[in-house]
DNA sequence: AAAACTGTAACATTTTTTATTACTTAATAA
DNA sequence: TTATTAAGTAATAAAAAATGTTACAGTTTT
């Protein structure tokens, strides 16, 4: 399962794309997603860390895109919303005394790596603008 | 994140591939994965439902492959270990009064569908035999 | 009949995700 | 210059999901 973070982040960015000249508040965005504003701000913090958006504090503050939606690839968002590999496994400590158990994680990671490459390739051909134009 | 079920199921199948003529017990398999035998049996139930393995109850019972590992594609396992879409989202109920909120799920599902196709395509070229030969 | 298995339901625990509260800092407008 | 509105963030709580355990019925072999 893809983390909800990806969906939330895409949602935030779609809204920002629709209002490229305005600072949107986390409360307004949270209202569209139906989510707590603090969670929105957390995802925005992540977007800021990756130089995709900028925020303004204080009255009439909010968040807006730092670059045009055409220049933001969904692949960037995909990679951003997962700390490690996205298509991977959590914890898994097989028996090191078993020939299969000893190697399974290495082989699975290799497989997941290939899958993630395919996902990235697919997403890199889609810009935030493309996605937003569907609305 | 891929569900641990995929990893567990691949692990089970790799063991069965290594001992194609024996009925392996859930306890033996659980020892290699380092998992509770009941969870192994639950995944085996899923494999049985998909006609990939057969089990024998009673003394000296266990599980074995129903067909050759060369004829089992990892894509089949991928699809099997996810009830719905794998690369998808859990719950998400955006605001239906917002033009973006109203459509986001449809558009995300469409995107996830494309991604899942790519994953399937990638995995359909890998057989269980290929994977097991790495060990 | 005893032993060694699978099958499954019910329940418990742990982990992860999501939500909330509370408070600090910053910018704007009155 | 003060009130207001908004971001930033840490700490905590609640809910959901994943994982683990127990218990026991049904099967097959010895």
UniProtKB/TrEMBL annotation, chains A, B:
It comes from Flavobacterium rhamnosiphilum. Transmembrane segments: none annotated. InterPro entries: Tscrpt_reg_Rrf2 (IPR000944), WH-like_DNA-bd_sf (IPR036388), WH_DNA-bd_sf (IPR036390). This is Rrf2 family transcriptional regulator. GO terms for cellular component: cytosol. GO terms for molecular function: DNA-binding transcription factor activity.
């Amino acid at each position: 399962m893809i983390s909800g973070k990806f969906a939330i982040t895409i949602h935030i960015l779609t809204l920002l794309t629709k209002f490229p000249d305005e600072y949107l508040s986390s409360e307004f965005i949270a209202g569209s997603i139906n989510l707590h504003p603090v969670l929105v701000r957390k995802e925005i913090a992540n977007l800021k860390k990756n130089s995709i958006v900028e925020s303004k504090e204080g009255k009439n503050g909010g968040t807006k895109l730092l670059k045009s939606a055409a220049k933001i690839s969904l692949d960037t968002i995909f990679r951003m919303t997962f700390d490690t590999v996205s298509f991977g496994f959590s914890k898994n400590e097989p028996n090191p005394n078993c020939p299969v158990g000893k190697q399974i994680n290495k082989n699975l990671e290799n497989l997941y790596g290939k899958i993630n490459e395919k996902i990235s390739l697919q997403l890199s051909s889609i810009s935030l603008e493309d996605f937003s134009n569907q609305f």
